[in-house]
Amino acid sequence: MSQRTLAPLFNPASVAIIGASSNPRRAGYVVIRNLIANGFSGPIMPVTPKYQAVMGILAYPAIESLPIKPDIAVICTRASRVPGIVETLAQFGCKAAIVMASGMAEAKTEDGTSALNAAFEHANRYGMRLLGPNSLGMMVPPIGLNASLAHTNALSGKIAFVSQSAALCTTVLDWANNKGIGFSAFVSLGDAADIDFDELIDYLGRDIHTRAILLYIDSIKDSRRFLSAARAASRHKPIIVVKSGRSQEGRHAAERHTGGVIGSDSVYEAAFRRAGMLRVQDLTELFAAVETLAHSTPIKGERLAVLSNGGGPAVLAVDEVITRGGKIGPLSEETRAKLDQVLPSIWSGQNPVDIIGDADADRYGKALDILLDANELDAVLVLHSPSALGDSDRIADSVIAVAEKHKQGRMLNILTTWSGEDAAYSARKRFNAAGIPTYRTPEGAAGAFMHMVEFSRNQKLLQEVPESVSDTLYPSTDNVHAQLNRAIEDGRLQLETHEAAALLSTYGINTIGTEFAATPEQAVQAANNLGYPVALKIQSPDLIHKSDVHGVSLNLTSDDDVIQAAGAMMRRVQLQVPGARVEGMLVQKMALTAGAQELRVAVIHDPVFGPAICLGEGGSEWDPTRDAAVALPPLNMALARYMVIQALKTQKLRDRRLPLGLNMQAICLLLTRLSHLIIDCPQIATLDLNPVLAAGESITVLDINLRLHSQPVDNAQRLAIMPYPKELEERASLKDGQSVTLRPILPEDEPSHHEFDSSLTAEDRYKRYFGVRAPMTHDEMAVLTQIDYAREMAFIATSKQPDGTEKTLGAVRATIDPDNTDAEFAMAVRSDHQGLGIGRLLLEKLIRYYRQNGTEAISGYTMFENRNMASLAKSLGFKVTFDMEEQLIYMHMPLTEN
């Protein structure tokens, strides 16, 4: 849907209230009251046949009698009437409507259609947008719009809040007003039948009035659109998420609440991290995050200093920071010497800085002034506990004065905790008014600081350059697909180790030698083929855990051992599980486990986000969403490394310090290869590798359980994050006969792209960037190379060098609006390779891509000096016009037929 169609919701010139009422207990009364009370300056038009006027405003008996077309309408009627009202509004020319009625999915129209479907069909037919149903409404405080059922108005500010829960909206609103925190937008999604999180995140991410976005989520409908929008917005603005349904009972409650599909909480957590968002666990943390976002600047580092008039609160703050993986900054000799001059001789000389319980405003101010000047620190937490010897308000004023003094210099983030209630209330109000974050407890303040740290870390993850890996990660998949499709045709939807080993081997994943045996005699033959010692494992689709029937025998060293173990195993199964189907046995070469650690790696299918990769240590009661670190494919080496670090940090994986130990590189390579396997093979539903032996650089899979989908899967939408589109790679020849590869850009291309950018002459750089500019920073280059293929594209031309590396010869990229209307391109060709046709090849490829993508047009600008670019564009069919005032050439080409 179009971002342009959301504009009326956020900046309406007029509002109609359908079902307006003079009854204070009716929604139609509350909405008009709120619109008037908040000072909305446009026409407010009540629609009701019952009253001539509502709250002194002339009412209209029907929509058709309105004097102007309303930009938005607020529908305050019962559910069964909504479809007809939506159709009439849409025909009348209304652009958007807020639907407050609940129960629309259950309500029926005269022909038996659900009221929800009927209303959406009417709106969609005329290009009208719907917010809701079951919405509390929305507020845009900067323009005085309060089209909601809220009990109070929101203050104007820089934070946008979007929630699926109306009750949470009013709770957050009440708290924020008490704190003096304002909002740029306050939106209750309701059931989100039309407008959903992804579109709102896209809109708010581009909104100049919004500095940060808060979300309350019960469920997500379109995971790819959500993650694409969130990733794009979170590069520029913090996005804080509260997600319900952490427990199984909570998930069921959330499902009943929204009617949406509720996936695994740990997969949601992985998705939020992947998109650069910050998740908080509850309302207390949400309020702390809002407090921080409203008043803080982005942190420049993680080193915190704690300044306190009591040791206990300081220790509590330090414990919270360290427990959550934060850092307490050590004080330099210079800083300690300065503090010695203003603090009593009995102070600790360390961080946290205990300035002693009788500290007055002067001592607080001088100590804080020194800490804010310390180059070894990035933030300061100021704590104060009530004391008869120190005036709480005067100390607060001193802190505020020092903070104001440092605004012009190297500004460190300042957080405060004034403990207590009556004794601290006035001081906290002072901090709110001064724009300094303040919290009731040391733990709350420390947690808020860690929110900032975690968000900063998530941003760095988005910009981390992955290690380049071998081309063998991209194998030929024809044989793999043939094997999987044959299995599905034969009705074999579960493949065990001996059947799946070759598939994993294609992707460079090592498995232990395994053969299937239907009889004890065949097991002996298999053991001789593999070489003793071997392991014997019962094979039955009816036995979930082989160990329950002693269905595993290890270290068999002779033919007699195999015969005896096989016979005993068969008899035990017949006795303990008489009806179990025994297909035979797996015979495996015994793995050398000395010095190795057992891991478990699985791929599960989440109903919201699709395939997810899990890493842990396993066990018979293993729950991958509880006992493992989770990540979404596609993974590269950098993302895999982050996943392993998360597993170690959360104790889902423990480094047992065995002789060979865990090798980060080897585990990351396994995860990356597994990711490619899952991306390439949509037939795979789930995959369980257990155990996996990790012995230094050697990673060996012992057991495989692979389950297949019985029906074809829509591969285009299967993954929540669109993977590298390898199918867009192609070979081409330049005018001099040189062979080049045209392909989408990869995150791994950052080093070569730096070299390419540096290779451009000063004149070419001037033409490319419309002026003189410094070399690209890492952050800027990360944006260019780590793209979201679902909504942007960049193609590069590369040539293979004698040492096997790739050299970038040219690049073309296009940014596109979420409406998919216009792709604006930019291009550069290596200065020493111009005139060989690289630019034409790249631009032709980009045109083909966006034409196939359904984009309406492609356009670009270039400088007057760059006539070669204009000539190339004209030869390809672009309309070229000259802007004499701006000294620019504009190139435009429609891609779709009208």
UniProtKB/TrEMBL annotation:
SMART domains with a match to the protein in the record: CoA_binding
InterPro entries: Acyl-CoA_Synth/Transferase, Acyl_CoA_acyltransferase, ATP_grasp_subdomain_1, CoA-bd, GNAT_dom, NAD(P)-bd_dom_sf, Succ_CoA_lig_flav_dom, Succinyl-CoA_synth-like
Domain N-acetyltransferase: 740-896
Domain of life of the native organism: Bacteria
Protein keywords: ATP-binding, Ligase, Nucleotide-binding
PROSITE patterns documented for this protein: GNAT (PS51186)
One Gene Ontology term of the molecular function aspect: ligase activity
PANTHER family referenced in this protein's UniProt entry, alphabetically: 3-HYDROXYPROPIONATE--COA LIGASE [ADP-FORMING] (PTHR43334:SF1), ACETATE--COA LIGASE [ADP-FORMING] (PTHR43334)
Protein name per its UniProtKB record: Bifunctional acetate--CoA ligase family protein/GNAT family N-acetyltransferase
Taxonomic source organism: Shewanella submarina
